[in-house]
Design a protein that fits this description.
2 copies of one chain form a homodimer.
Chain A (H helix, E strand, L loop, with lengths): L2 H27 L6 H38 L7 H37 L3 H37 L11 H48 L10 H37 L5 H23 L10 H33 L5 E3 L2 E2 L2 H26 L4 H10 L3 H14 L2 H31 L2 H23 L4 H44 L11 H42 L1 H15 L6 H11 L4 H33 L1 H38 L13 H42 L1
Antiparallel strand pairs in A: 1-2
Helix pairs in contact in A: 1-4, 1-7, 2-3, 2-6, 2-18, 3-4, 3-5, 3-6, 3-13, 4-5, 4-6, 4-7, 4-13, 5-6, 5-15, 5-18, 5-20, 6-7, 6-12, 6-13, 6-14, 6-18, 6-20, 7-8, 7-13, 8-9, 8-14, 9-12, 9-14, 10-11, 10-19, 11-19, 11-20, 12-14, 13-14, 14-19, 14-20, 15-16, 15-18, 15-19, ...
Amino acid sequence: MDNQTLLYLIPASGVLALIYSVLTSGWVRRQDEGDDRMKGIAGSIARGAMAFLSAEYKILGIFVVAVAILLAGTADDTSSSPMVALSFVLGAVCSGLAGFIGMRVATLANVRTAAAARSGLPGALTVAFRGGSVMGMSVVGLALLGLGTLFTYYLSSFGIDVNSSTPNSATLTRVINVLAGFSMGASSIALFARVGGGIYTKAADVGADLVGKVEAGIPEDHFLNPATIADNVGDNVGDVAGMGADLFESYVGAILGAMILGAVAVSGSVQAVMIPLVIAAVGIVVSIVGTSFVRTKEGGNLQLALDGGMFGAAAIMIPLSYFIIDHFVQSAQTAGTPISFEAGESVSTVALMGAIVIGLVCGVAIGLVTGFYCSKNKRPVDSIVEQSQTGPATNIIAGIGVGFESTAVPIALICLAIFVANYFAGLYGVALAALGMLSTTGIQLAVDAYGPISDNAGGIAEMSGLPPQVRERTDNLDAVGNTTAAIGKGFAIASAALAALSLFAAYRQIAIKPGESLVLTDPEVLVGILFGGMLPFVFSAMAMKAVGDAAMDMITEVRRQFRDIPVLRAALQLVAKAEEEERVLTAEEDAQVQAAGKKAEVERCVEISTQASIRRMIQPGLLAMIAPVVVGFWSPHALGGMLAGTLCSGVMLAIFMSNAGGAWDNAKKQVEDQTKSREDNTGKGSERHKAAVIGDTVGDPFKDTAGPSLNILIKLMTIVAVVIAPLIR
Amino acid sequence: MDNQTLLYLIPASGVLALIYSVLTSGWVRRQDEGDDRMKGIAGSIARGAMAFLSAEYKILGIFVVAVAILLAGTADDTSSSPMVALSFVLGAVCSGLAGFIGMRVATLANVRTAAAARSGLPGALTVAFRGGSVMGMSVVGLALLGLGTLFTYYLSSFGIDVNSSTPNSATLTRVINVLAGFSMGASSIALFARVGGGIYTKAADVGADLVGKVEAGIPEDHFLNPATIADNVGDNVGDVAGMGADLFESYVGAILGAMILGAVAVSGSVQAVMIPLVIAAVGIVVSIVGTSFVRTKEGGNLQLALDGGMFGAAAIMIPLSYFIIDHFVQSAQTAGTPISFEAGESVSTVALMGAIVIGLVCGVAIGLVTGFYCSKNKRPVDSIVEQSQTGPATNIIAGIGVGFESTAVPIALICLAIFVANYFAGLYGVALAALGMLSTTGIQLAVDAYGPISDNAGGIAEMSGLPPQVRERTDNLDAVGNTTAAIGKGFAIASAALAALSLFAAYRQIAIKPGESLVLTDPEVLVGILFGGMLPFVFSAMAMKAVGDAAMDMITEVRRQFRDIPVLRAALQLVAKAEEEERVLTAEEDAQVQAAGKKAEVERCVEISTQASIRRMIQPGLLAMIAPVVVGFWSPHALGGMLAGTLCSGVMLAIFMSNAGGAWDNAKKQVEDQTKSREDNTGKGSERHKAAVIGDTVGDPFKDTAGPSLNILIKLMTIVAVVIAPLIR
């Protein structure tokens, strides 16, 4: 096939993924959604989630239009600014759309998963996973449809023929620089979605847990707790929509980083630019095939089903990548312009595959290490559990220690990946290593999104009073996704660092005049490094404070309801007493509690979370957008330093916060698992448990708000730098 | 005066400071040490402190000998390795000696301050401050005596005549490179002392507070609590000996950084090297004069007295620095070799003074910002107090947010200082900016050490049952040092960053071949940056875990004693009840409590802290020493990146941890201040207070163990790199 034909296949693969999404989403919609009470609760969650999204998108719409006008109006040497603006708007719209579709189907799938769980595990697994796969395929589909269409359009606008073997490398770089606006749009929406969603979900979660579980002594997700619906809405807006936008951004960033570095090849640049696009396109098909591996029988191994899908896809992808790379390496050779980044040294298929494989290996290893630090009954979590015995203070100190320590091995692995990939194929190799991890994003994200859907199904089961075995089944579903999700997290961290690095290298190529370089001992670079190193801390401070403030609003509201609504108060005492005595409620008591539940003012809690999160996502988002512009116009060298500083401290903080949060979470669960050996008073309700709950609460904004946002922050700042690079040179 | 004469004045000024120390220490020793009970308690504290120091120095002795043998045995191009080893040993010994002398006199001064506080404030102030000034003068005296003597000796060994205007610049650089061993010795002892002392003091503090105040409900520093003596010992080994070694290291590092950068001057290098030494020598005399300003009358303003000493010294120092600099600038000009770092561009007196002044201004500003973030009734601490209402989790989240946020302005100010100082006089200017802040270290450290002495005096007053007004007076003494101490902290942070930067520039000069440079986009440099950025996190993890583990040992021991010693248990209940009812004990009750106090097994707690801290200081200390050596021998470029990465994330973490810890501390105090308005149940003993105490406890290892150690870590790694630079080039 010639390059032009291959180029058309890229948006086509995107369309294929979207068709899969539509069909699967229709299938999910046709499943049984359970009894009226379940429908009612699911309806509240869906309405709350949509209310948040529409409030959020209104603000983001204004933001996107404003930035687009700025971008379009910026006079530039090649007057291609309107194209940058177009890319930006499309990137933002696709990202928002992916989040919307994912969340829409997740709020359909949660209740249907709960309904299916009434009759058994395999059915529930299928519903939850298919719900997740709609999200996964929407993300990759919209990404390739957008990128592929724009790229084809810009190529023809700039008059580049990809079938010609020697296009102007500078013009090709310019095309991809214009295309970078797409990534910038995706990243900026992702940052707002992650931060906003993260604030929402954690404000609700912290509020619900602290007042409900700790103070009133009622179970998690109990319908008497008015913050519970907001908490479940939060799972959707944070873990589904936020994560969708996040992975959309990572995926686009990794593809684009490799494309830019491909464009600067001395020869064979067309082929080097096509490789990442075609790998991504084939990855979509493989992901769709992979989803069909995910199935199990009653009593079957769920873990194996999910792992089968993901590792199956990866296993197919490796040989296919080899063939794709080999095709382009050969075709470049045949055309007499072998892919080469240094004069005289052409790159071999094996070298490029080496870069991809080291990326995959390090990504999986980072995931396993992450899993180790966050898993129950492993040394790190055990140490937190042990320190919980002496109260919350030692629990917190231990958790922070575990989080700090957990940066060591992942960073060493990232360093190894950079070193080896660079050895094989220079910085283009580093970009390919990032891409390798994300080529099967479609199915990875399906597994990731499956988690919050199962979690939500559990919440609905609890709130609508389904029999305990239903909740047990959804808990089982939720638990098995964890290893796969941990590996996904490892990929997210490693690919973010590597993609940021390749975008950083691209920035250097475009912004720094030939003959100059970014010298570490240049005072402007040093000032940039220190200043850039500080930004992730300030950004995290904003996110943490936002969660703290919003959670406090929520706590005050729940306390007020528990205090001021007499029937609610009475019902709470009944439930807490029954919990204490480990018995179920009598029919009469149950009727009273049910009636009281209707008095809980759920909407006020949803409203508080929505308002708080929308208002507070703006400041950190703008910080990330404005800082590189201001510093860049002062000095491109300082901006170079700043990007390195932000990468350095941002990656550390991201790993620290995610892992500390995960470890605290599982330390709490480990303490709760020991409920049965209650005679030594160390299980649920004990002082040790209270300490563990406090640690978990502190960890919530770490792992679900600030931590994951930092990955986006790093890339957004770098992509903004790349987009403005021609202007500040 | 010719340069040779000036050179002799440098060790002479060191001797002068030591004479001051001996005389003042004799004066302190002659003061009244109070009644037998006070003597007994003070004796226990002094014995505990000495037991710790001797255990610590035994280990450090082995370490120093081992490193010295390694250094001496390393074959090197100029075969000056034995000199490096000599410098290293002397630096280590002087640092250890400064810590020992300071702590010896502090444990004499604490009880005498308490005794003097029985009759009034002015006497107590004088005793505490003179005790602190012994420490201050020992530090600067030993530093200049050591540095001055070695420098003179090495100059003659290498055959350099400082009166000649054109010595060989490469040989001069070599001399100072050999002298850098002194700084390495000082820094390595400082790191161990800070980490070991920090673990000790916080294990004891956390243990004493959690079980005593929170669980048993007895007041802080109560003699029934067996961990109280260990807590007071900890104040001495951590805050006095640890801080002394720390400032010894900073002081030597700042002088040496400026000397190295002076040596690489194109012309006038002798003068550029002499400037920092002579400024430091004059600074000693000025500091001694400054101590005489610190006096007050009964009812006088204590704050004014301390500020008078410190700012008075600084005010004298500025014009004197001008004259010193002008002398050397003129003499270089007269000799026909004006001080110049770039061919053809000579540096003026005004430019060099500009660098010093911007350093001072930014240092003071950072101190004020630090003060703002850590002071009661200011926005940051208020926000933590407010969040304490909803429990420990929100308190912790708020504190971490405040700490993260507090990095912003100090880093911006450090960036400003680097930029301006570099504008005036290149990287030599940056080094002078660091030196300017530390030129009056003698009196700054006196004020710093005065704080823990007053604190200890308060502890002794409490434990020996002196009348409440004595404790009030010592609390007053303790409180007034705070602003001055905050500014000292600002100086410590800013000077650490600037000194590390100048040592980093020196490393680049020595380790990187001419014609090459440290390029930010070089993969080896990038790998170095990421790896280096990770080290402060892992180092902090080790320190935090050490504190957590040691504190848990302590908590378990105190709980055991409270449970298993019946008379102690009975007495505790009496005291807690009296506290609750806000009344004093009856004579009969008091007798019972007194008798029970003798049963508390104090020595076991001292033993636990000592063992735990010595054992656990080794691992983080070795990490800092070994990492640069291993990476450096792999690639000098990667080591360059690593130093930048460690500087970047280390400075952020240091500021974050110090300020978060300080803010939590004062949030707790602010809640306690509100005790009187107890009707709303928000003061001492309330849930809000418990939350604030937990925050304070988490902050303890932040601000007293990991935070201050990071400043040393950054410089130690850089100085190790400088020392090994000729070997890895």
